[in-house]
Design a protein that fits this description.
Keywords (chains A, B): Aminotransferase, Pyridoxal phosphate, Transferase
Shape of chain A: globular
Largest interface: A-B, 53 and 53 residues
Structural class of chain A: alpha/beta
Helix content of chain A: 40-55%
Subunit structure (chains A, B): Heterodimer of a large and a small subunit.
Distance between the termini of chain A: 35 Å
Radius of gyration of chain A: 21 Å
Number of strands of chain A: 13
Largest sheet of chain A: 7 strands, mixed
Strand content of chain A: 15-25%
Function (chains A, B): Soluble hydrogenase catalyzes both production and consumption of hydrogen from suitable artificial electron donors or acceptors. This subunit catalyzes the tritium-exchange activity.
CATH topology of the largest domain in chain A: Aspartate Aminotransferase, domain 2
CATH architecture of the largest domain in chain A: 3-Layer(aba) Sandwich
Oligomer: homodimer
Order of helices and strands of chain A: EHHEHEHEHEEEHEHEEHHHHEHEEHH
CATH class of the largest domain in chain A: Alpha Beta
Protein name (chains A, B): Tritium exchange subunit
Number of domains of chain A: 2
GO molecular function (chains A, B): alanine-glyoxylate transaminase activity; L-serine-pyruvate transaminase activity
CATH superfamily of the largest domain in chain A: Type I PLP-dependent aspartate aminotransferase-like (Major domain)
């Protein structure tokens, strides 16, 4: 049977019907009052989602493009920055900094382990001359399912006083409580194919007043990624360049859905999906890659023993049309990742776990009691 | 009556049903063999459309992002470049060059007039030390409907030998014969919401072997716009960053439609639409902004006398739900622009002109014989 795909990867995530139908509409002109009205509402709702009174800008780029814009708009060649790196995306922001000639210091942790806030505190406290201009943190590391302790790291950045905190929130925004103003997050980057529940193609960057101050003297070259242009246009409910009209119409629909669900419910749902998934995996006696204390609300990485990760993924796809993500780089075939981000319900987790039990059995994995995974997930759902 | 919009602007252009339905499909994972197969066919068809054996790369950006990538990947700070500027987009490439610290020399013409190839010849011939590293030309200037004489300018670039020819073909590719290899065009940038017949969101850049040689020593900083990353991934039928999956599925559909129609038919159709539109405007005794000898196959700009351009646009929208484009910057309210690019048929031109006649009459413009516009367009269609 075709066309019954269930996406359980950390992006693209499942897209609700309202967004699919919006995508299928004939585009309208982007220099019209009709489109400006849509942009005005989208901008308001983006601020609501980011819990900020400051700017949230929308670019026609992937999450990487958004994060790059969030870095290069506020820095100059040679600036010293600290970059947390404990997975594929942390490594990427190190590369971006290097590509632009920044003085990058990577603060690393093993893939699957969280960043140690004390290492940041040490560097920041030692920097009495205030040369560190920014600290870049991947909040939810998509490659490993680790949630870094942004709040504590950010408290050290605040004590430092000079450095900006720049956050890759690609798989945490819309899944985990990230109060941009309350925490004083200067730059937060995200992408549409995650918590936003629409296909890939849009990136978002929130910018604090402090970051706009830094923008004034930042000298890295930019044009398409120049956030000042987006700020100016957004204030007039328009865009500096032709925007991806259909994706924005879809976003218009999903942001309304999110407002209807409410932030607290959204965060509680992701917490519940995470807990149920992790309980189920434990119930199946499969090792989790990361500890519960640093588990991402969006992705659960499993490091199976006695059965190959990619064989599980392959059978899940073939037998049940469920797409799971694999491991990246040195974790390839060592882990599989279950995405539970965005338009994902309790029922989806039950489907996924029940199917996983069948796949494991068919692959000869016998270290579990049939039904134990589903029962463990069910317990979480019954209790929450 | 709602939802009967007819887009006659130079982008977004009308989108055929096959593409709309592809947009409405649930996204699939971008790291799957299913998606790689789509990418492989799309890449082949992009090469066909560009008439090149070299690379055509696809980025998640607007046309401006594609053109910027096409500039910054092949140059270093301080490099001398010539930029043709006779409209909004020519001016934009001057700005991009300046933003990156290039030594930009703008070669200008009045908006509505074509660039003079002799001015390029002069500069290029005088440059015996071969310091000019690139010549940037907007082929079809969207803001004015002027088609610049790329072939002649390029012949001077070829005589120079050192400089790259970088082309903004955003509203010419897929409308006008642009044989990338036969003409030796080093870099050609375009965008999805034009001749490609899908909504905005994708940019394209073709790159010649000579441009790849320049890439090796080019030093401008870049990451998301680094074409080397796209080349590497495209060779493996994948993408360096999460691609806009749904837009690519739509492009997959429209490129098949284009192949079915055939390049010669596509170009002949645009030539016919252009000729019919211009004949009709002349039949209505309305002045055209540009001369026939430099008329874009994609956009016709009209500079009405005795009736305000924006009043015409406004009434055309209100009365017939036909969207026409306005003038930009100093041409605001001085011209209106009829887009006839992409998924536009002979019938659409007849609809547009017939409606325009009604609108002109209602606005008190009496300098034409009712029916004369339609009759002039009909003559072109009957003869071709």
């Amino acid at each position: 049977m075709n066309n019954k795909l269930m996406l359980m990867i950390p992006g693209p995530t499942p897209v609700p019907e309202a967004a699919l139908l919006a995508l299928a509409k004939h585009p309208i002109g982007h220099r019209t009052s009709e489109f400006s009205n849509i942009l005005a509402e989208v901008t308001e709702n983006l601020k609501w989602l980011h819990q900020t009174q400051s700017d949230v800008l929308m670019l026609n780029v992937s999450g990487t493009g958004a994060a790059e814009a969030g870095i290069i708009n506020f820095l100059s060649s040679g600036d010293r920055i600290l970059v947390g790196s404990n997975g594929k995306f942390g490594e990427r922001w190190v590369e971006v900094g290097q590509a632009y000639g920044l003085n990058v210091e990577a603060i690393t942790a093993e893939w699957g382990k969280p960043l140690d806030p004390a290492l940041f505190a040490e560097k920041l406290q030692a920097d009495t001359e205030k040369q560190i201009k920014a600290v870049i943190i991947t909040h939810s590391e998509t490659s490993t399912g680790v949630l870094n302790d942004l709040e504590t790291i950010n408290s050290h950045v605040k004590e430092h006083g000079e450095a900006l905190i720049i956050v890759d929130a690609v798989t945490s925004l819309g899944a985990f409580n990230l109060p941009v103003d309350a925490w004083g997050l200067d730059v937060v980057a995200s992408g549409s194919q995650k918590g936003y529940m629409i296909p890939p193609g849009l990136g978002f960057v929130s910018v604090s007043p402090k970051a706009w101050e830094a923008y004034k003297t930042a000298k890295l070259p930019k044009y398409y990624l120049d956030l000042g242009k987006y700020r100016k246009s957004t204030a007039k409910n328009t865009t500096p360049f032709t925007p991806p009209v259909n994706l924005i119409m879809a976003l218009h629909a999903t942001l309304r859905m999110m407002k209807e669900e409410g932030l607290e419910s959204i965060f509680a749902r992701h917490e519940r999906l995470k807990n149920a998934t992790r309980a189920a995996i434990k119930g199946l006696n499969l090792p989790l890659l990361g500890a519960d204390s640093c588990a991402s609300p969006a992705i659960t990485a499993v490091a199976p023993q006695g059965v190959e990760a990619d064989k599980i993924r392959s059978l899940m796809k073939k037998r049940f049309d469920i797409a799971l993500a694999g491991g990246q780089d040195h974790l390839s075939n060592k882990i599989f990742r279950i995405g539970h981000l965005g338009f994902v319900s309790d029922r989806d987790i039950l489907s996924c776990i029940a199917s996983l039990e069948v796949a494991l059995s068919e692959l000869g994995y016998e270290n579990f009691t049939p039904g134990a995974g589903v029962a463990a997930a069910a317990r979480v759902f019954s209790q929450s």
